[in-house]
Every structure is written in C-alpha cells, then in structure tokens.
Amino acid sequence: MTGAEITGAFTLTDHEGRQRQLEDFKGKVVAVFFGYTRCPDVCPTTMLSMANAMVLMGDKAQDVQVLFITVDPERDTQDILAQYVPSFYPGFIGLYGAAEQLKQAARNYKVVYAKQQTQDGSSYTVDHSAGVYVFDREGKIRAYLRHDETPEQLAHDITQFF
After folding, report:
1. CA-to-CA dists, residue 33 to 118, 122, 129, angstroms
2. Which element (helix H / strand E) includes 101?
3. Distance (Å, rounded) from C-alpha 115 to C-alpha 95?
4. In this structure, are residues 30 and 137 in contact, taking their beta carbons and an 8 Å threshold?
5. 57 with 50: CB under 8 angstroms?
6. pTM listed for this prediction
C-alpha cells in the first residue's frame, strides 16, 4: 500500500464528542477499520481480532491507535459507539459524522458501502469494504490487512511499521 493514493484524511467526531483527524494520531501507528455496530459477523470478528492483536503486542500496543469509523451514521450515535467500540479494547476509538463527512472519508479510503433492506423491509444491513488500513507514525498509508487475518498475523503486520 505504500505510495497508494489513499490520503487517510477525515474530519469526524469521536465517541467522546471530540472532533478528530488522522493527524491527531501522528507518532502512533494507526489502524483504521470501517464498519457498523449492528454488523452480524465481519465487524465484531475483526474488532475482536484487533483487540487480541493488541494484547499480543504487549507494551508495543501503547504505540498503536485503532479507529473504528461507522458506515451507519443513522444508527451509530455517539452513545452507541461509546458503548460498543471500547468494549473490545479500552483504547479503541469510534468515529462518526454527518452523512457527507462519512462519504468524504470513504472516498479518501476508497471504501464502498451501501444500505441493504432486509427481506421484510423492517430494517437494513450495510454492505461495506472490510479491511484494516495501517498508517505509519508519520501518517503515511503502509498496509491494507484483510479482515480475516488472525490476531497473530495482525500483530505481526502492524508492528512492521513501528
């Protein structure tokens, strides 16, 4: 991914109500995952794998920031994200924003997402790109990790950018 045309730029609000940008995390390796809290499979599995990777990293984990950007801003409110995201690992940060802010962030990451109505029409799911973007300490994109990597693989891959 080094040299890819992915800026990593976003202006979103974190689950504590602070406006955030990728630049806020310079000096840390940053892992960014787009998902949503009502995801039935990929999102919780990836977040759990990331949490287990943090444990495997030991003291090095303090130099990593995991960011979860919701693709479901209608339902993933600040309160929902504040409950969901840190439940996987205390230092994880959930980010949300208005629909247009999310669209811009997704464009910057080349992420696609779309609502899909359930068969009975009573709700929806969100189809979305699934993978973890890794930025080095200077904020440069370095890797795109598959959502199905093991915690051991994630920990190994992320620590390559310290």
Report:
1. 24, 27, 9
2. helix 99-109
3. 19
4. no
5. no
6. 0.96
DSSP class of residue 6?
Answer: -
Most distant CA pair in the chain, distance = 48
Q: Rounded CA gap, 160 and 50, in Å?
A: 15
pLDDT tens digits, residue range 128-141?
999 999 999 999 99
The answer to whether the beta carbons of residues 117 and 124 sit under 8 Å apart is: yes
Cα 110 to Cα 135: distance, rounded to the nearest angstrom: 15
Q: Cα separations (Å) of 99 from 20, 58, 71, 74, 104?
A: 16, 36, 9, 8, 9
Q: What angle do CA 65, 69, 73 make, to 5 degrees?
A: 150
Q: Which residue has the tokens 């994200």?
A: 81
Written as one letter, the residue type at 37 is: T
